[in-house]
Amino acid sequence: MKTSKLILAVESSCDETAASVYSSTAGVLSNELFSQIDLHARYGGVVPEIASRSHIEKINPIVQQALDKAHVSLKDIDIFAVTQRPGLPGSLLIGVSFVKALAGVMQKSIIGINHLEGHVFSACIENSIPFPFIGLTASGGHTALYYVRGLGDFELIGQTTDDAAGEAFDKVAKLIGLPYPGGPVIEKLATQVDFHDFFHYPRLKNHATLDFSFSGLKTAVLYDLVKKDLYNLKDKQFLAVGDRALQKQVASSLLVCIGDIFERALERAFKQYPEAQALAFVGGVACNNYLKNRFKTTTSRLKKEFYFPSPRYCTDNAAMIAFVAHYKAQKGQYSDLSLDIY
Ligand code: KG4
Ligand code: ZN
Fold first, then answer.
1. b vs e for 317-326, b when ≥16 Cβ sit within 10 Å of the residue's Cβ?
2. Of ligand 1's atoms, which has the minimum distance to the CA of residue 311?
3. For residue 230, with 0-12 CB atoms within 10 Å meaning exposed, 13-18 middle and 19 or more buried, which class applies?
4. Ligand in nearest proximity to the CA of 284
5. For the chain, how big is the Rg over CA atoms in Å?
6. CA–CA gap between residue 296 and residue 202 (Å, rounded)
7. Angle value at C-alpha 136, between 133 and 138, nearest 5 degrees
8. Environment of ion ligand 2 (residues, CB < 5 A)
9. Closest Cα to residue 42, out of 50, 33, 32?
10. Would you call 2 helix, strand, or coil by DSSP?
11. Is the Cβ atom of 87 under 6 angstroms away from ligand 1?
12. Which residue from 20, 14, 202, 48 is spatially nearest to 125, judged by alpha carbons?
């Protein structure tokens, strides 16, 4: 009897069409992706209709690519998994409809997965993290702190009350004429000025909760530029286009400020949950080496371990969806073909 189970997972919640084949004994066999970044770049953010149309075009080839890379075929798959929430409805629907059709035709099990649970446990794909741990998820759509007791057993303990951290990078980048997505380019520019805090943007002073806020930061950057006659509010126009020195100063000050906001929240989280043994930093923003270096110092000072996924598991991917499906299958937590999006 076949003991190893094969999972095919699909992720299409936002602007990445992704598929992964995961073996219950060998782990990730393939992790394929089509990123729509270039399609959305000129709009400065994700355009839902463009995203849906691109998913329709790419989902079949990406799934085939994932099967080919794993050297398996559709008939070898035992469990189909798909991101069912949260995300752009038009994007989620394509992945969910596609995977429901596959599971229905192949008469195999299906499991609907929460994208955020995928991110929270993405650091567990490559690492054996001691429980309980604090999970910090920071992406373009979400920024939250979780207290994680075990696989699939996690509690939201803090979150952004407005923009996500990635959104702050993206919005400020747009403000000063930098391309989308803002995170990577802001990190690159900040590196060139050694992460100096030129403008000292305001840090949130709320120490009572584990929540954070980033929209005020974007506004602070905006009004600082207005004050310096570098931004015309009426025409929504950045007046120092091409001023690389200024872009570096804004980028660096923003990154240091976001680092401070996170560091303070992490200190409070570990104080409130002293039994937490480690920090797992996940999501697209966890590609950022400056933040990772800071958290490494913070956790070592607090005598906690520090984990983060490889960049391919930080940004949206289907391997993290397959990983969650694997432990859900072990617990018998299957969905059925009435699976819907949320
Ligand atoms: O997880 P992800 O791919 O998609 C969402 O679920 O949102 O995250 C994308 C976000 C974008 O906002 C992007 O600017 C940010 O992650 N990001 C970064 C870096 N690379 C990507 N932010 C800061 N530093 C980076 N190196
Ligand atoms: Zn995501």
1. bbbbbbbbbb
2. 20
3. middle
4. 1
5. 21
6. 24
7. 160
8. 139, 316
9. 50
10. coil
11. no
12. 20
What ligand 1 atom has the least distance to the C-alpha of 315? 3
Write out pLDDT tens, residues 113-134.
Answer: 999 999 999 999 999 999 999 9
- Cβ of 139 less than 6 Å from ligand 1: yes
What token pair was written down for 198? 């030129």
Report how far residue 266's alpha carbon sits from residue 272's, in angstroms, rounded to the nearest whole number. Answer: 10
User: What is the pTM (predicted TM-score) of this model?
Assistant: 0.95
Atom of ligand 1 lying closest to residue 314 CA: 1
300 Cα: distance to centroid of ligand 2 (angstroms): 27
Ligand 1 atom nearest to 164, measured from its CA: 12
Q: What is the pLDDT of residues 205-242, one digit of tens each?
A: 667 789 988 888 999 999 999 999 999 999 999 999 88
Q: Is 135 in the pocket of ligand 1 (CB under 6 A)?
A: no
Which residue ranges form the domains of the chain, and what is each CATH number? 6-121+315-330 (3.30.420.40), 131-308 (3.30.420.40)
